[in-house]
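Sat 14:20. Reprocessing the chain from the morning session after the first attempt stalled halfway. Input below, unchanged.
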Amino acid sequence: MPFALRQFGQAAALITPAGETLTYNDTAAAADNFATHIGPRKLVFILASNCAESVIGYLGCLGAKAPAALLAPNIHPDLLSNLLHLYRPHYLWLPRGRASVLPAGAELFALGDYVLGAYCTEPLEVFDQLALLMPTSGTTGSPKFVRQSYSNLASNAAAIASYLQICACDKAITTLPMHYVYGLSIINSHLQAGAAVVLTTAGLMEKRFWELLNSQQVTSLAGVPYTYEQLKRLAWHRMQLPSLRTMTQAGGKLHPSLAVEFASHCLAKGILFYLMYGASEATARMCYLPPHLALEKSASVGIPIPGGELWLEDETRQPITQPNVSGELCYRGPNVALGYAHSRADLALGDEFHGTLRTGDLAHCDEDGHYYITGRKSRFIKLFGNRVSLEDMEQLIRNAGIDCACTGDDQALRVYVSKVSEHDDIASFVQQLTNLHRSVIKTTVIDSIPRNEAGKIIYAELP
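Finished this time. Tokens:
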């Protein structure tokens, strides 16, 4: 296991929404007990909510050397069914309310509201370093996962704990879902440092979230750009948050004006404000902006994390050495994942990335060695911090018999349809299909989807 839990003994590890404290010894014992119910190198699907049961199941899988796939707890039944068909996991760890997908008599073990059930008995060949499967496209149910190793998890957790200066006296609160790589990295980095994680599914707009933050004396608050937009609407800087020591942002580019605003408020309050950049393929973080530069370089994603290396390449993959010249951002480090999986057979694959990741993001580097993201080479957007493949989205909608084209940015997914078909409200249909929030889905009905002679969509001709 990447985390030596018992070295922190009776220190608080997990604090539940009800206020129950699980020490590191308690958490280790519960994870060890979970591990006795599954075998090594068995595949486990976890419908991961921000609760102690999810974390214990995840840690139990790591201890048992059983690779786990973390999925949204509210994943649409049809999408879950497709993933179960493609990957045929040996076990499912899920809330009792979702246990209907288990075969009759499959329940093996229960803890709180969660149930462990046997699902498939087929033999499975698994690469010996494979620890975790993380979704690449948020809640869309794409069968594509990033394959992360034990050393990926350990190295990135240690690097994050180092540059954020996480210590045993810290407490983080779960503002992001556990099945999202940023949310999981908060849990990993704090457990690696002997700190505590306050678990909650409450949102920032709920009074109980702030009551929990203050009563538990939370020291760290994390968020994606949408989180910070919510905080601005709440006038958070007027709140009394005496325990808060650190605020972090990743999951998409924060608007520079908002970055300056938060950097200014944090400076006035004595809070360290970190702008960061990462990807599932890097097990979470690749670079960060030191807090003392948050005002001066608010548009920058900063410098490489400890143990990592960044550089830029031109279209011929030659390194760019001059400052302020745009190219593809590349990263090398021990946290670079093994590769991708699209089905069960891919779990046998070894290390395909070999420690190097070409991010697909365009960037430039200033004279001081700080990097600035300027765009993307490929068709991905980030919504509420979730990376969404426009190609995958189009395919999901077409599978329902609707001809479409998808575009968008970090504010909205735009779906163009040539006919409404039997779905009168395309936005509601897409929401049901993907679990994306209704407010970020914009639809337009057009006469036909523009295509070239080869049948490829001409996105420039969309209205």
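The CA atoms of residues 15 and 21 lie 5 Å apart.
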